[in-house]
Amino acid sequence: MDRMSEDRETQDRASGGGTDSAPLGAELPEYAERVLDVADLIPPGRVMTYGDVAEWLGDGGPRQVGRVMALYGSAVPWWRVVRADGALLPGHELRALDHYREEGTPLREASRAAAGHVPRLDMRQARWDGATGPTGGAGGTGAVGGGGGTHGPDGGEEAHI
């Protein structure tokens, strides 16, 4: 196991993991390491959907990425990997909202009919394509997985759930 895997595994156990818990002493799976590497690349104030991460990697799908984030995501900026509809992660809305406000992530105010009046992410402005910097200029890397996201900050398709 490399040093990064050990650090993430230690941090994950110390923070209670995601919504599930990984087996103690288990080596971080290679796919999980790749997903977490992508989550680490997402700039503050930007997000990628579960499907975007899978597409970037050229492997798996939104459910596999979601599972990795649930098991190991607390070791990375988990609030930056989101649902395509912009809804905040159930059970973690307030923690995520604190992060989004601190980072200046674009939000859409909730309608009066929305449960708890919790805002949603403004996916058209917040979505990161994996290649541009936080202000839209060039500067990101495409080194993870050899893929590159095809969804730009304008939102692109939001069919990944």
State the gist of this model.
With about 160 residues, this protein is mainly α. The chain is built from 6 helices and 4 strands, in the order ααβααβαββα.
Structural class: mainly alpha
Question: Can you summarize the main beta sheet?
Answer: 2 strands, parallel
Q: Total number of β-strand segments?
A: 4
- Helix amount: 25-40%
Span between termini: 32 Å
Strand order of the largest sheet: 1-2
**What's the total helix number?**
6
Low-pLDDT sequence parts = 1-19, 134-161
Order of helices and strands: HHEHHEHEEH
Shape: globular
Rg estimate, integer Å: 15 Å
Strand content: under 5%
**What would the average pLDDT be, to the nearest integer?**
75
Q: Key terms for this structure?
A:
single chain, 161 residues, mainly alpha, two-stranded parallel ribbon, two-stranded antiparallel sheet, 4 strands, disordered N terminus, disordered C terminus
Describe it for me?
By secondary structure, this protein is mainly alpha-helical. Helix content is about 35%, strand content about 5%. Helix 2 packs across helix 4 (about 60-70) and helix 3 (about 50-55) crosses helix 4. The protein starts with a helix and ends in a 35-residue tail after the last helix. The model is unreliable at about 1-20 and about 135-160 (pLDDT under 50).
Q: Topology, please?
A:
Elements: H1 3-14, H2 30-41, E1 48-49, H3 50-57, H4 62-72, E2 81-82, H5 93-103, E3 107-108, E4 120-121, H6 123-126
Parallel strand pairs: 1-2
Antiparallel strand pairs: 3-4
Helix pairs in contact: 2-3, 2-4, 3-4
